[in-house]
Amino acid sequence: MAEIIVVNVVASASIGKELMLQDIAFQLEGAEYDQDRFPGLIYKLAEPKTAVLIFRSGKVVCTGARSIPDVHVAINKVVDELRVLDMPVKDEPDIVIQNIVATTNLESTLNLIQIAMSLGFENVEYEPEAFPGLVYRMDDPKVVLLLFGSGKMVCVGAREVNNIKDAVRNIKEELSTAGLMRT
Amino acid sequence: MAEIIVVNVVASASIGKELMLQDIAFQLEGAEYDQDRFPGLIYKLAEPKTAVLIFRSGKVVCTGARSIPDVHVAINKVVDELRVLDMPVKDEPDIVIQNIVATTNLESTLNLIQIAMSLGFENVEYEPEAFPGLVYRMDDPKVVLLLFGSGKMVCVGAREVNNIKDAVRNIKEELSTAGLMRT
DNA sequence: TTTCTTTTAAAAAGGGTATTTAAACCTTTA
DNA sequence: TAAAGGTTTAAATACCCTTTTTAAAAGAAA
């Protein structure tokens, strides 16, 4: 079975109280902050390679992590840096994984038109002239799959890694049963 | 003492579960519904003269009422009309008064520049070239007063009528003490 | 050839969209 | 010149947008 590769993890966390973003922007090297564009301050870390959005409320969003442990490492790094700047931050931020994006290879070229008909148009969106992937909204687990003619797929919206495993297992079963995959 | 006139009462309420706004828009005479402009359906009542915003969530907002009893009359009218259309509505919507707007006359012309200095620039905004009224944010009760050179004023943000009475009493006392009102 | 656009999910928090109302001053429009 | 509309304030409702990240692959633009 082709491996499932997590390519992006998005998480949110509360790291403290009211933060003075203007001060942080001035003291934190590399911080991007343009209130007119976006209310959050954008801080990109090189290792783990992530982008952390810091908000006035003390909440943050971490994007781009390749694993859940990396999310924790990234957020803790930001918290430590803010602590050095004497900003009011917690010792243990409460991190919540919000979205895990993963890819895998179904190892079979796919006839997306036939798959669209088979999965039912109520859960499928397929407009090759707009986007080459077929969008399938799975109910359980509640995730969205992007299927490509090459057999590769992307799973987005998962809250935990097991959701992805279940989704991949389900779609393989559905396609195989419908005879839409080289078995 | 010049009377306080309530000119607008805004209230919110939950009147039921998920509502099909599209259906309501089609069946309710006079309903305005344009999803691209605003997510709520706008329904204007002639008596009491109000505008009720109905949302998909089953929550509504009533604006324009001249009194608190009128808010109840208006919302109940809407609920009754929706019930006739077989929409899922409650028997007793839980109405919450969110904002009461009132006007009164301080019966003295006011020197807004002097008042701005006296009340303290941290709570006052006065830019006559932009807007003729002086904006005063009172802490207790937490309301905002718009003072005009004519002596007339507007009080917004009150949650109950007593807030307005207290606010008027307070501003009169503050201005009189500072000798900024003809007593 | 490289880059960008298309699509999807998710959070954060502002801004805009719309509704109502008074005050009074300015500008625009018939 | 009169009438209309814009200026400001509060409040709830709930959507859209903004930004960040990431893969897939097709088409277009540079």
Q: What secondary-structure arrangement, pairings included, does this model have?
A:
2 copies of one chain form a homodimer.
Chain A: E1 5-16, H1 21-27, E2 41-45, E3 50-54, E4 59-65, H2 68-84, E5 89-105, H3 112-119, E6 124-125, E7 134-138, E8 143-147, E9 152-158, H4 161-177
Antiparallel strand pairs in A: 1-4, 1-5, 2-3, 3-4, 5-9, 6-7, 7-8, 8-9
Chain B binds a DNA duplex (30 and 30 nucleotides) through residues 5-13, 32, 34-40, 42, 44, 50-57, 59-66, 96-103, 125, 127-133, 135, 137, 143-150, 152-159.
Sequence repeats (chains A, B): 6-82
Keywords (chains A, B): DNA-binding, Repeat, Transcription, Transcription regulation
Protein name (chains A, B): TATA-box-binding protein
Explain briefly what this protein structure is.
Chains A, B: Pfam families: TBP. The structure is a homodimer of 183-residue chains. With 183 residues, chain A is an alpha+beta fold.
Structural class of chain A: alpha+beta
What string gives the helices and strands of chain A in order? Answer: EHEEEHEHEEEEH
CATH topology term of the largest domain in chain A = TATA-Binding Protein
Number of strands of chain A: 9
Number of domains of chain A: 2
Q: In CATH terms, what is the architecture of the largest domain in chain A?
A: 2-Layer Sandwich
Number of helices of chain A: 4
**How helical, in percent, are the residues of chain A?**
25-40%
Span of the ends, CA to CA of chain A: 12 Å
| Largest sheet: number of strands, sense, barrel closure of chain A | 9 strands, antiparallel
The Rg value of chain A, from CA coordinates, equals: 20 Å
Q: On the 0-100 scale, what is the average pLDDT of chain A?
A: 95
* Proportion of strand residues of chain A: 35-45%
Oligomeric status: homodimer
| Strand arrangement across the biggest beta sheet of chain A | 2-3-4-1-5-9-8-7-6
CATH superfamily of the largest domain in chain A: TATA-Binding Protein
Question: What does the overall shape of chain A look like?
Answer: elongated
Protein name (chains A, B): TATA-box-binding protein
Sequence repeats (chains A, B): 6-82
Family (chains A, B): Belongs to the TBP family.
Organism (chains A, B): Marine Group III euryarchaeote CG-Epi6
